[in-house]
Automatic annotation (TrEMBL):
GO terms for cellular component: cytoplasm. It comes from Scardovia wiggsiae F0424. This is Putative tRNA (cytidine(34)-2'-O)-methyltransferase. CDD domains: SpoU-like_TrmL. GO terms for molecular function: RNA binding; tRNA (5-carboxymethylaminomethyluridine(34)-2'-O)-methyltransferase activity; tRNA (cytidine(34)-2'-O)-methyltransferase activity. It is found in: Cytoplasm. InterPro entries: Alpha/beta_knot_MTases, SpoU_MeTrfase, TrmL, tRNA_m1G_MTases_N. Its EC number is 2.1.1.207. It catalyses: cytidine(34) in tRNA + S-adenosyl-L-methionine = 2'-O-methylcytidine(34) in tRNA + S-adenosyl-L-homocysteine + H(+); 5-carboxymethylaminomethyluridine(34) in tRNA(Leu) + S-adenosyl-L-methionine = 5-carboxymethylaminomethyl-2'-O-methyluridine(34) in tRNA(Leu) + S-adenosyl-L-homocysteine + H(+). Residues 1-10 have a biased composition (Basic and acidic residues). SUPFAM superfamilies: alpha/beta knot. Residues 80-220 form the tRNA/rRNA methyltransferase SpoU type domain. Gene3D superfamilies: 3.40.1280.10.
Length: 234
C-alpha cells in the first residue's frame, strides 16, 4: 500500500469508513483526528469522552438500563453477562456485539476498569448508543432482576459443549473474568442459580480463548438456533 493510499484511509473525509464503504465526514471543528473513525478534543485527558465520526459523544453510560428495566426488555437473542470483567477492550467489543445482535449486556461488579476508559469506547466504536448495558452490584442482583431466565455458564471445567443447548431468548449467557490472577469464581459459575455449564472446545494444552471471542461464538450460535430473528436478512 502506498503512502498516499495510507494517508487517504487515515485522514477523515478522504476515503471510506471502517470497512463499510461509507465516507467519513470531515473532522468537526475543535477536535483532532484520533483514529480512522473517531476523534478526541485536544484539551481532554485520557479518561474523557471520545466522539464518533459525526462528532457525537461516545459514552457507555448513555446506554445504561436499570436492572429492573433489563428484566422487561424483550430480545430475539439471549442476554450476555460478564462477571467481574478486567479488560476494558473486551467489554467494549461485547457492547458492539450486543448492538449488532440486539442483546443486552450485563456487567456484574466489581469491574476491573472505569466505564469511561478510552479502550472500552474505542473497542465499541460508536455502537454504545445502540446497545443496552446493565450494571449489577453483585450476582444476586442479576438473578433477582431476571426472574424466569435460565443462566448458562461458560467455563473450561464444564463437560457439555455450548452447541448442546437449545437456547431461548430469555437465557443469560454467563462468562467469568478473563484468565489471570483471578480464577473462575466457581461458587458463581457452578452455583445454585446456574441452569447448565458448558464449554467451547479447544486444542489440548492451550489455556483459553479471548473473552470477547468466546461471547461472540456463543451468542451467534444461540442466534443461529433462533433463526437470526431481527437481522437484516432474517
Amino acid at each position: 500500500m502506498s503512502d498516499n493510499t495510507k494517508r487517504q484511509r487515515t485522514e477523515p473525509g478522504q476515503g471510506p469508513g471502517p470497512g463499510n464503504g461509507t465516507v467519513v465526514p470531515p473532522v468537526p471543528q475543535g477536535v483532532t483526528a484520533m483514529f480512522e473513525y473517531g476523534y478526541r478534543k485536544p484539551s481532554y485527558g485520557p479518561d474523557e469522552l471520545i466522539t464518533d465520526a459525526h462528532g457525537n459523544p461516545v459514552n457507555v453510560t448513555d446506554a445504561m438500563l436499570q436492572p429492573h428495566e433489563a428484566g422487561l426488555k424483550e430480545t430475539a437473542v439471549p442476554h450476555l453477562c460478564f462477571y467481574s470483567p478486567r479488560i476494558p477492550g473486551n467489554t467494549g467489543s461485547a457492547i458492539r456485539l450486543c448492538a449488532v445482535t440486539g442483546s443486552v449486556l450485563h456487567l456484574v461488579e466489581p469491574l476491573g476498569f472505569n466505564l469511561r476508559d478510552t479502550k472500552l469506547r474505542r473497542a465499541g466504536l460508536d455502537y454504545h448508543d445502540m446497545a443496552h448495558v446493565v450494571i449489577h452490584p453483585d450476582f444476586e442482583n442479576l438473578v433477582s432482576s431476571m426472574p424466569g431466565s435460565r443462566i448458562i455458564s461458560f467455563t473450561a471445567q464444564a463437560d457439555g459443549l455450548y452447541t448442546e443447548v437449545e437456547y431461548r431468548p430469555t437465557d443469560i449467557l454467563l462468562f467469568g473474568p478473563e484468565p489471570g490472577n483471578i480464577p473462575d469464581p466457581m461458587d458463581i459459575m457452578a452455583g445454585e442459580h446456574i441452569y447448565r455449564q458448558v464449554r467451547l472446545p479447544m486444542r489440548p494444552s492451550l489455556r483459553s480463548l479471548n473473552l470477547a471471542n468466546c461471547a461472540s461464538i456463543a451468542l451467534y450460535e444461540a442466534w443461529r438456533q433462533l433463526g437470526f430473528k431481527g437481522s437484516s436478512k432474517a
